[in-house]
Write a structure and sequence with these properties.
318 residues; alpha/beta; 8-stranded mixed β-sheet; 12 helices; 8 strands; SDR_fam; NAD(P)-bd_dom_sf; SDR_member_12; Dehydrogenase/reductase (SDR family) member 12
Length: 318
């Protein structure tokens, strides 16, 4: 089954996830969707100092939004801020230094941020793909800690603040790679068998999609969505998937192409009219499972995922 999923997914990727796939989809975009004034709206973007996160921050700042860059590396974050302010002429760009793989740091940031700032839109973009098994100082597998647990803590900790805002939204940057995985709820940290960083990442991305669906059903006041940016030429892809990057680099999307649907989900009026909890690709809701792929989890397993994360998150709460 996994061979079938991988083969179907790769063929789909060549058609849809590449630069030519974006260009074909973009013929149907409505340009006016992004013609908005965002002054007075506050956006928190994780992993915003490079790649899709930075491209998203650029577009939001250009339209007058207040942008909070949540980054791990202070130097690179300040460089990104300077660049965004210079290009957008928007001074309302702020840096927050947080390691999303540290559950305690994420809790501390979310709680202090909510006390002194408003938030209209949270964009969960930070992610990592560590190919060798690595544990954080808190003893959590690094990919899971960053992609799933960090995202879970930040989102749940900011939900009360989001509910105070007008037209609140949460967008999680997932990946089409999750289509090749059925969630393994009893092995969330990839402890069984030989460790494979690419598959651990894909598992995390499946977990994010399930969480988005659950949050949407539990918090009706907030519009939740997850999305696939396509195969984009970002520093993260170059670093984590060098072989894939070398083979595909002429076919990869630009960072701006990868960010387009994130921006559309975050700012356009039409996006918020879509049902909450869906998975998007190139401004369209798309299925979260390949045909005949047997990748669906039971409602009990999806509930168990959330319960396990709540338990783990609570363990690290300051």
């Amino acid at each position: 089954m996994s061979f079938y999923r991988n083969a179907v997914w790769f063929v789909k990727g060549l058609q849809e996830y590449t630069k030519s796939g974006y260009e074909a989809a973009a013929k149907h975009f409505i340009i006016g969707d992004l013609d908005v004034n965002l002054s007075g709206r506050s956006f928190v973007i994780t992993g915003a100092n490079s790649g899709i996160g930075k491209a998203t921050a650029h577009e939001i700042a250009k339209r007058g939004g207040m942008v909070h860059l949540v980054c791990r590396n202070k130097e690179r974050a300040e460089e990104a801020k300077e660049e965004i302010v210079e290009h957008s002429k928007n001074q309302n760009v702020h840096v927050h230094i947080v390691d999303m793989s540290s559950a305690r740091q994420v809790w501390e940031f979310a709680e202090s941020f909510a006390k002194s700032n408003s938030i209209h839109v949270l964009i969960n973009n930070a992610g990592c793909m560590v190919n060798q098994k690595e544990l954080t100082e808190e003893g959590v597998e690094k990919n899971f800690a960053t992609n799933t647990l960090g995202t879970f803590i930040l989102t749940t900790a900011l939900i009360p603040a989001l509910k105070q805002a007008q037209d609140p939204r949460v967008i999680t940057v997932s990946s089409g790679g999750m289509l090749v995985q059925k969630m393994k709820v009893d092995d969330l940290q990839s402890e069984r068998g030989t460790f494979d960083g690419t598959m651990a990442y894909a598992q995390n991305k499946r977990q994010q999609v399930i969480l988005t669906e659950r949050w949407a059903s539990q918090h009706k006041e907030i519009h939740f969505s997850s999305m696939h940016p396509g195969w984009a030429d970002t520093p993260a892809v170059q670093l984590s998937m060098p072989d894939f990057h070398a083979k595909m680099k002429n076919k990869l999307r630009t960072e701006a192409m990868g960010a387009d649907t994130v921006v559309w989900l975050a700012v356009s009026a039409v996006a918020s009219k879509q049902p909450s909890g869906l998975f998007f690709q190139d401004r369209m809701a798309v299925p979260t499972h390949l045909p005949l792929a047997s990748s669906r989890s039971s409602p009990a397993d999806e509930e168990k995922l959330q319960a396990t994360l709540e338990q783990l998150a609570h363990k690290f709460k300051p």
